[in-house]
Design a protein that fits this description.
InterPro entries: DUF6540 (IPR046670). The protein is mainly beta and about 140 residues long. It has one domain. Helix content is about 15%, strand content about 35%. The protein has helices at about 95-100, 125-135; strands at about 20-30, 35-40, 50-55, 60-70, 80-90, 110, 115, 140.
Length: about 140
């Protein structure tokens, strides 16, 4: 279920085993009016990896995207990263299908007016929270 909420920073609490691909992090970068968040999976020894996110705006609707990405800290707009778990090498191929099944936030405004004021606004932050939960529910993301 979608809703609003904040992501709380937490420390890595488990050691990676040889079966683990890498850490799964929420990557936060600066933006207006709210910071942008996406799911970053470290897959390489240099801590680069893959980024799963929705982009766009709630004025026009958002779309799902997946791309290779450098370490989050190397971005000029980097704000923070939050550890959320680990993914096994064998489960990496399942990530995209799981998160892509979460509908991206739709167009929610016509000009300055909300299309449906009875529904909560859904941004990249709410989508990411739902996608992380789907990865946990699917047994892909281990805390």
């Amino acid at each position: 279920m979608r809703g609003t909420g904040t992501v709380v920073d937490c420390k890595k609490s488990i050691a990676q085993s040889s079966d683990d691909l890498g850490d799964v992090l929420l990557r936060l970068r600066g933006g207006a009016p709210r910071n942008h968040v996406g799911i970053f999976v470290e897959v390489n020894e240099d801590l680069s990896g893959s980024l799963f996110q929705v982009t766009g705006s709630i004025q026009n609707g958002m779309t799902f995207g997946h791309k290779k990405a450098y370490r989050p800290e190397d971005s000029a707009s980097y704000v923070s990263k939050t550890y959320v778990g680990t993914i096994a090498k064998d489960d990496y191929a399942r990530i995209q299908a799981i998160v892509e099944a979460i509908p991206p936030p739709p167009k929610q405004f016509n000009g300055p007016r909300r299309i449906d004021p009875s529904k909560p606004l859904i941004t990249c932050q709410e989508w990411t929270k739902e996608a992380v939960q789907a990865l946990k529910d699917g047994g892909v993301l281990k805390e």
